[in-house]
Every structure is written in structure tokens, then in C-alpha cells.
Amino acid sequence: MHEVLGTTTDGDLVINVGPQHPATHGVLHLVITLHGETIRKVDPHLGYIHRSIEKMCESLTYRQFIYVTSRMDYLSAHINNHACALCVEKGLQVEVPARAQYIRVLMDELTRIASHELWWGAMAMDLGAFTPFFHAFRERENINDIMEETCGARLTMNYMVPGGVMADIHPNFQKRVKSFIQLFRSKFDEYNEMVTGNIIFQNRMKGVGYLSAEDAISYGCTGPTARGSGVSCDVRKIMPYELYNQVQFDEILETGGDSFARYMVRLREMNESINIIEQVIDNIPEGDYQAKTKAVLKLPKGEFYTRVETARGELGVYIVSEGGTTPYRIKFRSPGFSNLSALDHMARGSKIGDLVAMMGTLDLVIPDIDR
Amino acid sequence: MMDREHMISCITEWVPGAKAEEGTEWTTLSIPGESWPELAQRLRDEADWQMDFLFCLTCIDWKTHLTMVYHLTSTRHRHILVIKADLPADDAVIHTASHLWKTAIFHEREVFEMFGVRFSKHPDLRLLILPDGWEGRNPMKKDFEDPVNMIRM
Amino acid sequence: MFSLSGITTALHDWLSGRFSEAWVMLIEMLLAGIAVISFFAILGLVLVLMERKVSAWMQIRLGPNRVGPKGMLQSFADTLKLLVKEGMTPNGADKLLFNMAPVMAMVIAMLLMAPIAFAKDFQLWDINIGVLYISAVSSLSVISILMAGWASNNKYSLLGAMRSGAQIVSYELSAGLAILTIVVLSGSLNMNDIVMAQENGWWIFKGHIPVIIAFVIFIIAVTAETNRAPFDLAEAESELTAGFHTEYSGMKFALFFLAEYVNVFIVCAIGATLFLGGWMPFHIGNWDGFNRVMDFIPSSIWFLGKTFLLIFLIMWFRWSFPRLRIDQLLNLEWKYLLPISMVNILLVAAIAILGWHF
User: Fold this and answer.
1) Angle formed by the axes of helices C338-354 and C208-225, to 10°?
2) I need a labelling partner for A321 at 20 to 30 A (CA). Which of A313, C136, C255, C274 fits?
3) Residues in chain C closer than 8 A to A354 (CB atoms)
4) ipTM for the whole complex
5) Do B129 and A219 touch (CB under 8 A)?
């Protein structure tokens, strides 16, 4: 696909990391220029899993297109759907019933925990520690089971419809979520013992991949990547949607700007999500889980933009409507795309091993970058 | 935090051709493409604007013309501004924003290959998502046809 | 006592009665060769299975459990699979070196087996410079890795091989100095003499804190020398896909794999011999009664028990630590382990001269 790459004129080594490489967790292709072990340049080549979801959505109706977006950031599929549903609701000016809002927030936070669990295991695996992966999956499995019971699917849930959620929660839902909270609390210390406190791990993470607050903003980084540099950018706080202005939670900020800060943000975020779930789980109001909407949705002529906080950062959904049943143009501003653009800046001058640590803490999901 | 009227009056003063759009959630202004670099510089640097975060950059193909859309916000003041610039469909050129917001490096590369908009002074305007050797046709344009891979419903 | 010592002498006597001296020598060498190769194969299979079971146990899963009783034949099945796979040689590779490298890794691992005392009077070659021989031969193993990395014509392999070269050469020093502490205390380079010197207690108990420090350094250094996690930079799969053996497949890959496990066994056997008394049962000073009871356990069991304990320790490292970075790895050796070992050996020398050890 790309030109044959060898050595550059000044003796630097050019190597292709990916598109099939154990560290890239998907089909990301990085062309890196090495001087010995030191990285001179990182050049991402994207598109290996580009399905042109934006173009696809132009020929799908407002009910249909939501489910395609599950396949963007598959680890927070539910939050993607949420963003699209919110955007359509904004256009339709539908009031979402309180029960649906509660269920949506609960599912969002469960998805966020599941996503961070997977990230935690995969990142430890990037650094060469295999065992945390399995320990993380033990807890993640519980979330998947809860999802399966209520939504009928484990990864791409497709539980959202414009105006609410597709079905009511399973009778066991609350009980199982509560037992999950207990399980998670009891296992969380294990995470710190196994990985965070490890001296090798700290040496690998601290001072690696430094990203200053100004650069984080300039590169459009969002989510834990930017919050690790001390940039307050949690959409749940700055532009609250659904219930997020009614629940108590802290925006997690770390000021280190290095890989370790980003790591700590995600780890603490898991705990914060558990706090949100705890506040919400007992208060789900009775009532409808779906607002009454027309069978065929038509958005008025205009433009609608929603910003939602996914597990990886800010997801923007921009719908341009001409008044028909399908969007005229749709744009997904995916968090991974912007976060990846900072990688070259972060990686220059560090070692190959550091690149892997940085990619781990950026939490890249390739379909999210390519769309 | 600035209110809508203030924003509109400021920008129309800086850019004579700017037109505000009605009925939008966020303040939206349409400007001529030539005035974009100057306006962008001011939006980012003026103390009471400080639009330091370009959170979305995209393009819309209206068949007759293309529209660049910039969603800007300030991490300090939290106000949001949407700037649009119409470009002719056959020769779409606009000054880059990547010297002010580095996130535009990637987003403009995407718009470049998907819509064929050329960004002058962009440091590295290459294909990002499309395979090397892709020529001409821009996939996100409305007149793009691919009989093999596109499924129409 | 039931021990393996009888077997060798009986065999020797039986052969001497029938053949001339030269023939006896030849036949014995042949038998030893066959014994080493089959021991090698079995050891590889057992260790691979052990590693998979240990990792499964740490990772809350079951591990191999389908082939044979409790999955015990899994390694046989895997070996069979690797045997019938195509061994590919990439275009542009240096064919001779590429094919020679795995064999070389294997031969070096086999050579190391010679001076190890597996049980009382059960040793292939009772060489009087045993420890020196082991240090010398084990440092050759880097050549096979460099050969594999260079000959593969692959940048990942090359990077892995270069990392490995830097790593093994550095850690050789600490390992050598740690071994030297025991040589100083025992006053001999002969493996058997070292074991006999521990008749009234193992060096790790007799040698005060310096020997414990030497033991810790030894374990760290040999983990690095055998390219095991957390020092597996030469094959760091998340960075260099598979490092020096990226291009290897089929049986050639299996030889590398086997050599790694045999190397682990050998370094653990050396560690057990030097610090934990080899085949010597657990003796305490002159508590004759207690020592007599301990003698009832066969010496081969003592030896293998200690060795497998150390192997388990090394596997435990692998499944719980993240990997170091190349500069951290070299810092650890040159800035910490080497100076500590040097001071440590001075202390040990003082202890040996003044006779302070028990």
C-alpha cells in the first residue's frame, strides 16, 4: 500500500508499526523513524478500518443511523448511541421521560467502567504484564452480563431509540448492578496493588509522553487524555445533558501531563462512575421508558450538534438536516482522532517502549479514529 | 462568557461581510473565506474571546458550493461560536487553521481528501485516510459514485 | 539409600567387562548424548506445560485441559503441530546463518548441561572448572540471538537482537560476580566440591547477608540473561512483535522456544547448586538425627525440587511484572547491580578469609 520504506539518508531506521502489530490494538499503521532506539517521528496512516460511516448515515433514516454508530467506538457503543439519540431529540424537541434518562445515565456509566476496565488490562499488557488483563475481564464480564440481560447484547447494545430506550430494564437489573458495585469495590484495591504500585510500572509511566495543558487544548485532546494534563473538559460538567446536573460527581483532574497522570485519571474515573451509579440506581422513577414519537422521524431544516462525554473523550454529533427523513450531512467528531494527532508531538525523543506506553494511555480505539 | 449579540456585533465589526444565522443553538456566523485567517487569529488571541479549542472542523457539500464549518470554544470562558465559510465547489481554497489550533492538522487533512478543499499554508497536506495513490474523486461529496462498494437503499 | 549413583557405576562396570577401554568411552558418550537429548525434549515439554499452568493459575483461568489427562499432553500436541509446519526462510535472509541460529541456541543449551550434578554421583562430566565452564558457555548464547536477528533481514529482529546483545553482555557481569561469591566461600570451581561444601548447611543460610544479596542479584541477572520477563526486551511482543525470532516458524521457532526453557532450567539448576546445596539434603550443622532423616529423601528429588522452586519463582516474575525499558534495564545493571555485586564480593572475601561463615 505504501512506498517501500528503508533507511533515511542520515542513517535513521524507518519501521512500520502496524497495521498488524500487537501494540496497536487494531489496524492502526504508524510509520516511525528511529535513531537507534529513539523516536524521531511518528506518522500515523489511517483508513484501514474506514467504513465511511458518515456517508453511510446519509442514506439511513434517523431511526436507523443510530445503530451504525455502535461500530465507531465499540467499547463505548452505548454512549455513541446516546449522543446520536440526543441529537435527534434536539431536532425533534422531544422530552425524554425521567425513567429513560435514569436508565441512559446508568448504562452510560456502566459502559464507561467496562471500557476503562478493558483499557486497564490492555494497557498493562502493552507494558508486558499479562495478568491484569484477565483480572480486569473478570469484572468486565459482570457488566457485560448485566447489559446482556437488559439490552440483549453484550458489546454493541443498540439500546437507544430517539425519545428513550428500546425496552424497560430487566427485573434483576438493580439487584445485579448493586452486587456489581460491591464486587468492584472489593476488587479495586487489587488493581492498585497489582499495577499502580509496581515500581517498574511507575518507572515506565512517570515522565513519559508529556503533554502540556496548552498542547492538549491545541491538539483538541479531550477526555482522560486532556484531564491528565489538567484541562477541565468533562462535557458532563461543562454542558450537562440528561441527569448529569442532578448527580454529585467530581471531574477527575491530574496535573502531571504524563502517562501516569492519564492512567490515574482513568483509574479514578472508574470509581467516580461507581459513585454516580450508586446515586442513581435506587432512584429510578416509575413511568414510561420511551416518549411517544412518530413512526417516521423528520427533523426540521437546520443544524444540530450534541457533545457527549464517552469513555475516550468528547464525541460530537453534527447533523445537518434539509427537512427530510435522512440527514443531509452528518459529522462525528470522534475523540480518538484528535487524541491520536497529539501522539507525534508526545513521542518525539522517547524510546520505542515509551511509544507503546503512550499509545496505551491514549486509549486508542481504531474504528473510532477511522469511523 | 459572552452573549450572542455581543459576539455578533464584534465579528461583524471585524469582518464586514459576516452574516449571523438565525435560530441556531449556538452563535453562528457566515464569513467570506478570505477573512478567515485574520478572524481566526483574533478569536484565539483577544483576551475576552480566547477561543483556544477548535472542537470540530468539517465541511458540508451543498452541490453548488462547499461550506467549511468551524466549531470553536474557549476553555476559559466556555462560550461557543460556529464560523462558516462558503467556498466555490470547483476551486475550494481556504487558509489553514493549523498554525493556531494543531488539531486542525488532522482534521484539515481529512477534509482535504474527503471534500477536496485545499488548505493553503498547511504544513503537511497529504492523504490521511484514503490509500496512497487515490486520485481525484472525493468520497464525501454528493456526486461521488462507487458502483462496487456503495449500497443504496 | 535409593539413589541414582548406583546406576552409573553399574553401567560402567558392565561395559568395562565386555569391551575395550576406547569402546567403553565411545558407548558411554553416545549414551550420554542420547540421555541429554531426550532429557532436553522432555524438560522442554514439562516446562512449557508448567508455564502455561502457572500462568493460568495466576490469571484465574484453567490453562490447557483438553489434550490428555488434565491437559498434560498439550505440549506434545503443540510440538507435533510445530513439527509439521512449514519452516519458512524469508527472502533476503542470510540462509546459512538463519538456519544455523536455532541449532546453535540448542547446542549451547545442551553444552551447559554437562557439568551439572543432577544427583549424588550422577553427573555427565565432573570437570574441575565447572563453574567457569558454565559462565563461559552461557555467554555464547547471545551469539545465536545476534545471528538470528541479523540474518532475518527484518528490522524488528535486528532491534531485538541488538537489545539482547546489550542486555546479556551487561548482566553476564553481575551473574558472574554472584557466582564468584560462592566460589570464594567454597574455595573451588568444581560443582561437586561446591555441593560437598554445603554438607552442614546451604550457603544461603551459612553465608550471612552477603550471600542472600548475591542470591537476589543472581536471580535478577539470570532472569535477564535468559530473556525472560520482566527483562524480555529482545522479544517484547508489544514493541517488537516477537523480536529476534519474528521471522522464525515451525520447528526452527520451536528450537528457540525449547532453548529458552532449557536455559531457564539450567540457570535455576546452577542457582540451586550454588546457593541451595544442589542435591545436598537440608542439613543443619551437626544435628545428626535430623540430618539422617533428611538423607532418606533421595538426592535427585532434592535437586529437582530446588530447581523447580526457582523455576516457579522466575515464572512468577514473568506473570506479575511489566517490562522494563531498555535504558532502565541497562541503568539497573550498570548503576545498581554491578556496584553492589562488587562491594558484596569484597565482603564475602573478608568473611571467607576470617572464617566468619558457619
Assistant:
1) 140
2) A313
3) 325
4) 0.87
5) no
Check C325 against A351: CB less than 8 A apart.
Answer: yes
* Alpha helix stretches (DSSP H) within chain A: 53-57, 65-68, 77-92, 98-126, 131-151, 173-191, 199-205, 213-218, 223-227, 235-238, 259-281, 335-341, 343-347, 352-362, 366-370
pLDDT for the residue C358: 63
pLDDT of the residue at C339 = 92
> What are A118-159's pLDDT values in tens digits?
999 888 888 888 888 888 888 888 999 998 888 888 888 888
Query: How far is the C-alpha of A49 from the C-alpha of A370, rounded, in Å?
Result: 6
Is B101 within 8 Å of A46 when comparing Cβ atoms? Answer: no
Contact state of A204 with C325 under an 8 Å Cβ cutoff: yes
| Chain C residue with minimum CA distance to A202 | C322
**For C57, nearest residue in chain A (alpha carbons):** A131
For chain A, what are the domain ranges?
A: 50-370
Instruction: Decide if C232 and A128 are in contact by the 8 Å CB cutoff.
Output: yes
Across residues A248-274, what is the average pLDDT? 88
To which H or E segment does residue C198 belong? none
Please answer yes or no on whether B103 and A333 come within 8 Å at the CB atom.
Answer: no
Identify the residue with better confidence: C2 or A288: A288
Neighboring chains of C (3 or more beta-carbon pairs < 8 A):
A
In this complex, the chains that touch B, judged by 3 or more CB pairs closer than 8 A, are A
Average pLDDT, chain B: 84
Architecture of domain A50-370: Orthogonal Bundle (1.10)
3-state secondary structure B30-85: EEEHHHHHHHHHHHHHCCCCCCCEEEEEEEEECCCEEEEEEEEECCCCCCEEEEEE
Q: Cell triple for residue B131?
A: 490509500
Please answer whether residues C166 and C212 qualify as being in contact, where contact means their C-beta atoms are separated by less than 8 angstroms: no
Q: Which domains does chain B have, with CATH numbers?
A: 4-120 (3.30.460.80)
Per-residue confidence at A1, pLDDT binned at 50, 70, 90? very low
Burial track C233-271 (b if 16+ CB lie within 10 A, e otherwise):
bbbbbbbbbbbbbbbbbebbbbbbbbbbbbbbbbbbbbb
Per-residue model confidence as pLDDT tens digits over A148-167: 888 888 888 888 888 888 88
Chain A interface includes B134 (CB < 8 A):
no
Q: Report which secondary-structure segment, H or E, holds C47.
A: helix C21-58
pLDDT tens for each residue of C116-143: 877 777 777 778 888 888 888 888 888 8
- B contacts of A232 (beta carbons < 8 Å): 75
> Omega before B16 cis (within 30°)?
no
Residues belonging to chain C with any Cβ–Cβ distance to chain A shorter than 8 Å: 55, 58-61, 155-156, 159, 163, 229-230, 232-233, 236-241, 319-328
- Judged on CB neighbours under 10 Å (0-12, 13-18, 19+), C163 is buried
- Cβ distance C326 to A129 less than 8 Å, yes or no, reads no
Nearest residue to A361 (alpha-carbon basis) of A249, A272, A228, A180 = A228
**Looking at the complex, does the CB of residue B40 fall below 8 Å from at least one CB of chain A?**
no
Euclidean distance between CA atoms A253 and A191, whole angstroms: 20
Angstrom CA distances, C156 to A359, C105, C230, stand at 19, 19, 19
C8 has a pLDDT exceeding 80: no
**Secondary structure (3-state) at A319:** strand
Give the best residue of A5, A7, A15 to mutate against chain C (max C CB count within 10 A): A15
Of A87-96, B57-66, B90-99, B127-136, which range is least confident?
B127-136
Q: What is the mean pLDDT of residues C281-303?
A: 78
Instruction: State the cell numbers at A25.
Output: 490494538
User: Which of A23, A201, A351 is opposite residue C322, by nearest beta carbon?
Assistant: A201
In tens, the pLDDT along C235-258 reads 777 777 777 888 888 888 888 888
